[in-house]
Specification:
The complex is a heterotrimer. Helix content of chain A is 65%, strand content 2%. By secondary structure, chain A is mostly helical. Chain A has 2 domains: 24-275, Cytochrome Bc1 Complex, Chain C (Up-down Bundle), CATH 1.20.810.10; 281-384, Helix Hairpins, CATH 1.10.287. Chain A has a two-stranded antiparallel sheet with strand order 1-2. Helix content of chain B is 22%, strand content 17%. In chain B, strand 6 and strand 7 (180-182) form a beta hairpin. Chain C contains 8 helices and 6 strands, in the order ααβαβββαααββαα. Chain C starts with a helix and ends with a helix. Chain C folds into 2 domains: 2-192, Orthogonal Bundle (Cytochrome Bc1 Complex, Chain D, domain 2), CATH 1.10.760; 196-235. By secondary structure, chain C is mainly alpha-helical. In chain C, helix 2 (21-31) packs across helix 7 (175-190) and helix 6 runs antiparallel to helix 7. Chain C is elongated. Classes of the chains: A mainly alpha, B alpha+beta, C mainly alpha. At the A-C interface, helix 4, helix 5 and helix 10 of A face strand 1 and helix 8 of C. The complex binds protoporphyrin IX containing FE (HEM) and FE2/S2 (inorganic) cluster (FES). The site of protoporphyrin IX containing FE (HEM) has 28 residues of chain A, from helix 3, helix 5, helix 6 and helix 9.
Chain lengths: 398, 229, 235
């Protein structure tokens, strides 16, 4: 043996340079110096997701995925398992916190043009993550086998079934037969945690591609040199840390003092296949898409619109033709985009009300705007928009 | 405001920006201790918070703990159906419990000369039974033996060899790694099981009815406290 | 968590002798409601959360029988309930409950405070809203006049009457008192850990407030360095 390790770090470094890679990517990594707090939401999403996965593992230990015992096992966790109520509260609160965070995170990316070259892949993996988080949330919501679980699942499965061609086989694969029963519940359980763990993998891709292109910033202008950047640590570790503290405070208020906001009380009644609860409302984070589903008087039409409203997000990097990234310097987008955010909010409101007179029209209007924004405004606005001059350096921009 | 105050005594450590200017270097000498206190308190409190967060998760692993405490889980077994030399297996607390009726030959075999030398704990000195079973027949009455049928080696259920014409003693042999026990559950030397089979708390209600779970002769006995189950 | 609950007990001045509204409500449930209503998801042992002692819980459980498989003849057999068993229903099955109550099943109480529209407040009011039906008013068979119900009648005969039970602590058992105590009990069955939840929440928020101050100081100190660098560059 000629080679003798001088010290432990050197030995590891030669074989697996995790320490230096970590240092390069998460300590010294140059970040634009002018990021605002909206850039902390990615970190919030990570925290929420981490808590979800952790609490999920400990819930799974006490959960039973059978029609006979699912509801009772959740009751046992909530009432009798040591600290079980807290573990469950962390999991339930985490979902709302994650969705809220993701919606802001996406809004930020839209506003500052973070999806444009060279960040298309970050946006694509991000949208993929949103879809996966939705699937996970949907599957997870079935597990307690309450009335809302059962009827929410019924409605969604029938919707899938209604898709011509692939709908029926897809629903049948999901259910393992036709009915929403023991087999289906077991599958949703597996689907729930398999998708959840896959999310972790996709996050790795998402973050890796951020580290290739570097972060965008509120001006949308690339940093011009070392004066425009600061090392990730301690600048953004301290800033994100502060943000995470606030994020956790909101999270805590929700689970400790407002837990009723997190659940629909009907889900505390065990699933009953012969009684549909009076008003089925989705969880708030699905409400906008639920409103789209009901916006048109056609089953297939609603489905296509709802699925399309998410699908269109994938195309955003190629729909927006403007060379200017940040909406700060785009007078028209600066108006059009907040209107989109408002539409999304109103769709959410509509989704939580019965689809009758005022709300039905609100959802129709908003869904029309949703599509108009992505399919018409993004490609065409640049043709008429006179953008403001963009700054040359980031110094003095914070 | 606070930032402004602090910045006057600011100093650089390893986490300085890429190109330190002269001003910064010049303040190094006047480095106050305070910054390190702040940093370590923050990191320390952060770690404490993370530990506190782990509490509910780890606590939940205890499951529905404490629920079995003070549970009345005695069972009664009718002995009239057990023929001399035979045993039945009943379930108590989820464990297999052997209930045997002994023949005079089996009782004699328990006291056969030379047997004690081959046993690990012939006099039941190790706490594997209530006080009223710490005798030569390891039971409340000599004719009836009651043992938790879990091998003290690694937990398999030993097989019962009833007395036969060739061997009238009756004994237990564990299928897993060959441990041997006599009819009173005493472990033989030269085999892996280190302790005698546990005796549960037993009360004879009538000569033909036994209660498992409560010991009249040793009311303070708790099976959870024995050497090994 | 135990010490926190202890602290809470001390703060709330709960002593071993005074009975709480929840405990009195449990007595109402036990003596009145439980003849028809179930607690499917609450175990006898859970009642320790109300401050009942192990002996009280055992005594209560011991008055009930639970199914215990089949006997030697293949007939269903029962045994005395243990603290770990669920309190469950007074009826052997849904059909039997329906049979005994003019075709409707008395609702389960485990989460009733959560699932009832109007919550516990409505239940408390409903229990006190029985009255003589106005002259000429015809009620469907098996139903009773109750002004809290949307249609003015309910399938449950008036369950509470003044002085129907007696409280150990000497509280007069008026209908109003019993209804309110029962409300407190239902609130507890629906949210058994509410007190702990609030207490832990306060500790968590205090901790986060402390962390916030520290992190704010850290962040300001770090970022002020940048301003200083800028300033020196601009010379
Ligand atoms: C599980 C979900 C997600 C996690 C954990 C996550 C995490 C992160 C993190 C840590 C960052 C860097 C910090 C930041 O810029 O905020 C980031 C950046 C980004 N994310 Fe996500 N993300 C998620 C979902 C999404 C979604 C749904 C989208 C959009 C469809 C998205 C789009 C982006 C973009 C475009 C960036 C780059 C921003 C920039 O460089 O300015 N992400 N993400
Ligand atoms: S377990 Fe019985 S001999 Fe090993």
């Amino acid at each position: 043996m000629t080679e003798r390790p001088t010290h432990e770090a050197g030995w590891l470094e030669k074989r697996l340079p995790i320490v230096s890679v970590f240092r390069r990517e998460y300590v010294d990594f140059p970040m634009p110096r002018n990021l605002n707090s909206l850039w902390s939401f990615g970190a919030f999403a990570m925290v929420a997701l981490g808590l979800l996965v952790l609490s999920g593992i400990f819930l799974a230990i006490n959960y039973t995925p059978t029609m006979a015992d699912a509801f009772a096992s959740i009751e046992t966790i909530d009432r009798r398992v040591a600290s079980g109520w807290l573990v469950r509260a962390i999991h339930m609160g985490g979902v709302s916190m994650l969705f809220a965070t993701l919606y802001v995170h996406m809004g930020r990316s839209l506003y500052y043009g973070s999806y444009k070259t060279p960040r298309e892949l970050i946006w694509l993996t991000g949208t993929g993550l949103l879809a996966m988080v939705m699937i996970t949330a949907f599957a997870g919501y079935i597990l307690p086998w309450g009335q809302m679980s059962y009827w929410g699942a019924t409605v969604v499965i029938n919707a899938v079934n209604a898709v011509p061609g692939i709908g029926h086989p897809l629903a049948s694969w999901l259910l393992g037969g036709d009915g929403l029963g023991d087999v289906a519940l077991h599958r949703f359980y597996v689907l729930h945690f398999v998708t959840a763990f896959s999310i972790l993998g996709v996050i790795a891709l998402h973050v890796a591609s951020i580290h290739v292109s570097g972060s965008n910033n509120p001006t949308g202008v690339d940093p011009q040199g070392p004066d425009d950047t600061v090392p990730f640590h301690p600048y953004y570790t301290s800033k994100d840390g502060l943000g995470i503290c606030l994020f956790l405070a909101v999270y805590a208020v929700l689970i400790f003092f407002l837990p009723n906001l997190l659940t629909l009380s009907d889900n505390y009644v065990m699933a009953n296949p012969v009684v549909t609860p009076k008003d089925i409302t989705p969880e708030w984070y699905f409400a906008p898409f639920y409103a789209i589903l009901r916006a048109v008087p056609s089953r297939l039409g609603g489905l296509v619109l709802a699925a399309g409203s998410i699908a269109v997000l994938f195309a955003v990097p190629w729909l927006d033709r403007s060379p200017v990234r940040s909406a700060r310097y785009r007078p028209l987008l600066k108006i059009a985009l907040p209107v989109l955010f408002f539409s999304f909010f109103m769709l959410g409101m509509a989704g939580m009300h019965a689809p009758t007179a005022p709300w039905l029209w609100v959802s129709r209007l908003c869904v029309a705007y949703w599509y108009a924004y992505f399919l018409i405004m993004l490609p065409l606005l640049p043709k008429i928009e006179k953008t403001y001059p963009v700054p040359v350096a980031l110094q003095g921009q914070n | 405001m606070i930032g402004g105050l602090l910045s006057k005594r600011e100093t650089m450590t390893s986490d300085q920006p890429s190109s330190p200017s002269e001003t910064e270097i010049s303040v190094v000498e006047s480095a106050p201790k305070r910054r390190d206190v702040l940093a370590s308190v923050t990191v320390g409190l952060g770690c404490a918070g993370a530990c506190a967060l782990a509490y509910p998760f780890l606590d939940s692993l205890n499951g529905t703990r404490g629920e079995n405490a003070a549970e009345d889980d005695t069972i009664e077994v009718d002995l009239s159906a057990i023929a001399p030399g035979q045993q039945v297996i009943v379930k108590w607390r989820g464990w297999p419990v052997f209930v045997q009726r002994r023949t005079p030959d089996m009782l004699a075999a328990l006291r056969a000369p030379g047997l004690d030398q081959r046993l690990r704990d012939p006099a039941s000195t190790i706490m594997q039974q209530p006080k009223d079973a710490a005798n030569w027949h390891r039971s409340v009455v000599p004719e009836i033996g009651v043992y938790v049928g879990i091998c003290t080696h690694l937990g398999c259920v030993p097989n019962y060899d009833p007395p036969s014409t060739a061997d009238t003693s009756g004994h237990y042999a564990c299928p897993c790694h060959g441990s041997q026990f006599d009819a009173a559950g005493r472990a033989f030397k030269d085999a892996p099981a280190p302790y005698n089979l546990p005796v549960p708390p037993v009360t004879m209600l009538t000569p033909n009815r036994v209660q498992i779970g409560k010991s009249k002769g040793d009311p303070g006995f708790d099976i959870a406290n024995i050497q090994q189950i | 968590m135990r010490w926190m609950l202890l602290a809470l007990g001390l703060l709330g001045g709960v002593s071993a002798h005074a009975s709480t509204s929840e405990q009195r409500g449990f007595k109402v449930f036990r003596q009145v409601c439980s003849t028809c209503h179930s607690l499917d998801h609450v175990a006898y042992a859970d009642l320790s959360g109300l401050g009942l002692t192990q002996d009280q819980i055992k005594e209560y459980a011991a008055q009930h029988q639970v199914p215990d498989g089949l006997d030697e003849d293949g007939d269903p057999k029962t045994r005395v309930a243990r603290p770990t068993d669920l309190i469950g229903s007074p009826y052997a099955g849904e059909a039997m409950a329906r049979m005994a109550n003019h075709g409707s099943v008395p609702p389960d109480f485990s989460r009733r405070a959560m699932t009832q529209k109007g919550g516990v407040a409505w239940i408390v009011r409903m229990l006190q809203s029985y009255a003589e039906a106005p002259a000429g008013r015809k009620l469907p068979p098996g139903s009773y006049y109750n002004t809290a119900m949307p249609h003015g009648h309910i399938g449950m005969p008036q369950p509470l009457h003044d002085g129907q039970i007696s409280y150990e602590d000497g509280t007069p058992a008026t209908t109003k008192q019993m209804a309110e105590d029962l409300g407190a009990f239902l609130e507890w069955t629906a949210r058994p850990h509410l007190a702990a939840r609030h207490l832990v929440g306060v500790f968590v928020l205090l901790y986060l407030a402390g962390m916030y101050v520290l992190l704010l100081l850290m962040k300001r100190r770090v970022w002020s360095r940048l301003r200083q660098t800028d300033a020196s560059r601009n010379f």
